[in-house]
C-alpha cells in the first residue's frame, strides 16, 4: 500500500489538532471533579455554607467542561477508522478492548451518577449526593487509567503476539499489556498534571476576584486551597517527571536524545543544554547554552557517565528534534514556574499577606492557563518523540495511515478547525463568563427552568404549571434548606 505523503502529514495534523483540543478538557475536568468532591466533603464535615457556595459555583463550570470533553473525544475515535484504518486493523486486537473497558467502566460510571451530581441535590439525601460526586470523580480517574494504558502500550508495547499477517494480538496475560513498562509513570505524571491544571485555574479565578475585593471570603478560600495545591504538589510533580524521564531513557532512548538535543554521543559526561537551535540538517545544536555534564548527572546520577546521542540511531528512526526539544522545555519551564508560585504563596502566608499581595495575585492570573499549556507541551513531547512509529519500534506511522487522497483529508481538517473553533469557542467564552462573576453567599446551582421537562416517562408538564412548587402544591426547597 502506498500512502500519499501529503495526506499522511494532513492526517497527522488533523489528529494533533483534535487531540490537543480535546485534551485540555479532561485535563481540567479530572482535577475539577476531585476538587468538587473535596468541597462537598468539607461542607458535610464542617457545615460551612461557604463550601456549598463554591461547590455550586464550580459545578456549573464542570458541567460545560465535561460535556465539551465528551463531545471532542468521541470525534477522535472516528479518526481511527477514517484516517488510520491500517493502524486500527493491525493494533485493534490490543487497543480495542482497552478502549472498550474505558467505556464500560469509566464512562458508564460517570454517566450513571452525573445526573444525580448535577441535578440531584434537592432530590436525594446529602450522603447519596456526595457519593454521586465521588463516583464521578473516580470515573474520571478510571477513564485516565484506560486511555493512558492504551497510549503507554503504543509507547512501550508488551504482552502481545504477532499473527502471521502482521496483526498485534493479545498474549496470554492482559496484565502485561495494561501495566506495560511506561504506564505507571505516565499515569501518575498525567493525573498530577490534571490536578495542578485545575489548581492554577481555580487560583487564577480566586486571584481575579481578590484584586476586585480582598474581603471576598469565597475568593479567599479557593485561592488559598489552590495555592496549597501548588506549593505541595508541584515539587512532587517535578520528582515524578524526573522518574518518568529515567523510564523513558530505558525504553525510548531516542526520545530522550531529542528532548536533550543530544545529536552526538558524549563518552565523558553529557552537558545539559538549556537552550539552543536544533539543526536536523547538520545534526547539531546551534548556539547552545549548556551546563557541562549536568545531563549525565540528572539522567544517570553520575556526571561522568557516557550518554549516547542520535548518531547511534538510524536516520530513518530519529524523531524530529526541533519540536521535541522545545516542547519539552516549555513543559519543564512551566513546571518550575508553578513551583516558584507555590513557594511565593508560602512566603505570603508566613507574612500574612496571601490575600492582599497584589503582585502575587496578578502572577497567579497570568499562570492560570499554564497547566493547560504544560499538558499540551508534554503531550507533544510524548507523541512527536515516538515518531516515526505509532507502535514504538514495530509499526511506522507511514504504514498506519489510510490510503486517502490529500484533498479529502484537507477538507475534513478544515471542517474540524471551523466547527471546533465555533462550537468550543462559544463554550470557552461561556466558561469565562461564569468565572468573571464572583461566587457569593447563597450561590445557586444548576437549576430547572420552565423550558426544561420536570418529569420523564412521556409526561410533559403543561404551560400553566408553576415551576416553583411541587406537584402537591408545596414550595420547592430553597437554597437555605440545603445548608
Automatic annotation (TrEMBL):
Keywords: Cell membrane, Electron transport, Heme, Iron, Membrane, Metal-binding, Transmembrane, Transmembrane helix, Transport
Bias-annotated ranges (Basic and acidic residues): 443-453
Compartments where found: Cell inner membrane; Cell membrane
Topological category with respect to the lipid bilayer: Multi-pass membrane protein
Transmembrane portions of the chain: 20-45, 57-78, 98-120, 127-148, 192-211, 223-240, 323-347, 359-380, 404-432
Name of a matching Pfam family: Cyt_bd_oxida_I
UniProt family annotation: Belongs to the cytochrome ubiquinol oxidase subunit 1 family.
Name by which UniProt lists this protein: Cytochrome ubiquinol oxidase subunit I
Organism: Sphingomonas rhizophila
Amino acid at each position: 500500500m502506498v500512502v500519499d505523503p501529503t495526506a499522511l502529514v494532513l492526517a497527522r495534523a488533523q489528529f494533533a489538532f483534535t487531540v490537543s483540543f480535546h485534551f485540555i478538557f479532561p485535563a481540567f475536568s479530572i482535577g475539577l471533579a476531585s476538587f468538587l468532591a473535596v468541597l462537598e466533603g468539607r461542607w458535610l464535615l464542617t457545615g460551612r455554607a461557604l463550601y456549598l457556595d463554591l461547590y455550586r459555583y464550580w459545578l456549573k463550570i464542570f458541567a460545560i467542561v465535561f460535556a465539551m470533553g465528551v463531545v471532542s473525544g468521541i470525534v477522535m475515535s472516528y479518526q481511527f477508522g477514517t484516517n488510520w484504518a491500517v493502524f486500527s486493523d493491525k493494533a485493534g486486537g490490543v487497543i480495542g478492548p482497552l478502549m472498550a473497558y474505558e467505556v464500560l467502566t469509566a464512562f458508564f460510571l460517570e454517566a450513571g451518577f452525573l445526573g444525580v451530581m448535577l441535578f440531584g441535590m434537592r432530590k436525594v439525601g446529602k450522603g447519596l449526593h456526595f457519593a454521586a460526586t465521588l463516583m464521578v470523580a473516580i470515573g474520571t480517574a478510571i477513564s485516565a487509567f484506560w486511555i493512558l494504558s492504551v497510549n503507554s502500550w503504543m509507547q512501550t508495547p508488551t504482552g502481545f503476539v504477532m499473527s502471521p499477517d502482521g496483526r498485534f494480538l493479545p498474549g496470554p496475560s492482559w496484565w502485561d499489556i495494561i501495566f506495560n513498562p511506561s504506564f505507571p509513570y505516565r499515569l501518575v505524571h498525567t493525573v498530577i498534571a490534571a490536578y495542578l491544571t485545575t489548581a492554577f485555574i481555580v487560583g487564577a479565578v480566586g486571584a481575579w476576584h481578590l484584586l476586585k475585593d480582598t474581603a471576598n471570603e469565597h475568593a479567599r478560600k479557593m485561592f488559598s486551597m489552590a495555592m496549597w495545591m501548588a506549593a505541595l504538589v508541584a515539587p512532587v510533580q517535578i520528582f515524578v517527571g524526573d522518574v518518568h524521564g529515567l523510564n523513558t531513557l530505558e525504553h525510548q532512548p531516542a526520545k530522550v536524545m531529542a528532548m536533550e538535543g543530544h545529536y552526538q554521543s558524549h563518552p565523558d559526561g553529557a552537558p545539559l543544554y538549556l537552550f539552543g537551535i536544533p539543526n536536523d540538517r547538520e545534526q547539531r545544536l546551534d548556539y547552545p547554552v549548556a551546563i557541562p555534564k549536568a545531563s549525565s548527572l540528572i539522567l544517570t546520577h553520575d556526571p561522568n557517565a557516557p550518554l549516547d546521542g542520535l548518531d547511534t540511531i538510524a536516520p530513518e528512526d530519529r524523531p524530529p528534534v526541533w519540536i521535541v526539544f522545545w516542547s519539552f522545555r516549555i513543559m519543564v519551564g512551566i513546571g518550575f514556574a508553578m513551583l516558584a508560585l507555590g513557594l511565593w504563596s508560602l512566603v505570603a502566608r508566613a507574612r500574612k499577606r496571601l490575600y492582599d499581595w497584589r503582585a502575587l495575585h496578578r502572577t497567579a492570573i497570568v499562570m492560570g492557563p499554564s497547566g493547560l499549556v504544560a499538558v499540551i507541551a508534554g503531550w507533544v513531547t510524548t507523541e512527536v518523540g515516538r515518531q516515526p512509529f505509532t507502535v514504538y519500534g514495530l509499526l511506522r506511522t507511514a504504514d498506519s495511515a489510510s490510503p486517502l487522497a490529500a484533498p479529502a483529508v484537507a477538507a475534513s481538517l478544515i471542517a474540524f478547525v471551523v466547527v471546533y473553533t465555533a462550537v468550543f469557542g462559544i463554550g470557552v467564552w461561556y466558561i469565562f463568563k461564569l468565572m468573571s462573576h464572583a461566587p457569593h453567599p447563597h450561590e445557586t446551582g444548576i437549576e430547572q427552568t420552565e423550558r426544561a421537562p420536570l418529569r420523564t416517562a412521556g409526561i410533559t408538564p403543561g404551560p400553566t404549571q408553576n415551576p416553583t412548587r411541587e406537584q402537591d402544591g408545596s414550595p420547592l426547597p430553597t437554597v437555605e434548606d440545603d445548608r
